[in-house]
Fold Iron/ascorbate-dependent oxidoreductase.
Amino acid sequence: MTDAIPHTLPKPDVVPELDVAALEDAPTAEALAALAHACHTVGFLRVVNHGVPVEVVDDVLAAASEVFSLDQAEKEAVHINGSLSFRGYARVGEEITLGVPDFKETFDVGLEHPPVGQDAVAAAAATGAWAGLLAGANQWPAAAPMLAPRIYAYMDAMRELGLRIMTILAAALDLPLDTFTSVYTRRPAGRPDAAGFALLRLLRYPPQAGAPRIGVGEHSDFGMLTLLATDDIGGLQVEIEPGVWRDVPPRSGTFVLNFGDLLEVWTNGYIRATNHRVISPSSTMPRFSVPFFVEPDLDATFTPLDSSRFAYAPGRRPLDAEAADAAIFQKYEGRFEDALHYGDHIFAACVRSFPTNPVSIAWLAAQREP
Ligand SMILES: O=C(O)CCC(=O)C(=O)O
């Protein structure tokens, strides 16, 4: 049965739990197999017993509320189109998901790097090495001086958690424990070193009285894994089967975890990068959420693992090269046979999401040149 937007099917909650402490301290073969199965069939998990204090999560949600409450001029002063590294603020309707404007405000932060200048854009156009532009400086609103340390503290906590989860995932898939973490450089978020990449987004979904509205359209995430903190206003939905959407109800003290295209490619279609979307709140209150994208280093490359190591469930199968080219690799004009270059992959995602950024415009112009 398929359902029209935004009606959803009632319980049960379809999202299985990932108990971090239990899987680190006493991982039984049964629990690891259940986790692998959940990653394969659902691709969404609720992270519990993760050790991140609830105050830390409440604080980042409060930070989101504060940022979007700033005067519009303050927010415009750090607009994402003023960043050559896709960092900063965007108004409702400025971000595009699969060609459709979202109904949300956004504020994007990455690991801190030295600022990128126009000369770097010209060099990228000459060499084709566009992804390096993403390693740039954050933009912070002048009126919120305490924002940066708060956000960096949260990013450090979440990056650590993400890497712990990657180790658990490797165990669940019977891979060497450092398989996934090997593509991450560990370093603090606020220190402008050269290596490493991550993305945190503060999101505000305005309330929508009357007819229901999509806050962010259906999509799968682009990278490895996403850890999502939300307030207690629901709206997130997961496509559990083609055309069948279920609510992912908010639950305090937990994170929602989903997987990105890159991990799906790396595991040859075993780990599922599940489609999801957000319905705007129908109350008078906005909804705030903070997805943290646990991303590999920009220069990391990936080739799909041999599918013979995975037991695919009925209806699931290894990636088909042609379908993967259409769904994932065409995003940056690569081919399934190539190693997937993470930087190119995420750069293409940024261009698609923010086509009016000057870097997106320069990239498009460079593609048109003979
Ligand atoms: O706000 C949410 O709950 C989800 C956001 C999301 O899907 C995304 O940023 O990719």
About this structure: The longest strand covers residues 287-294.
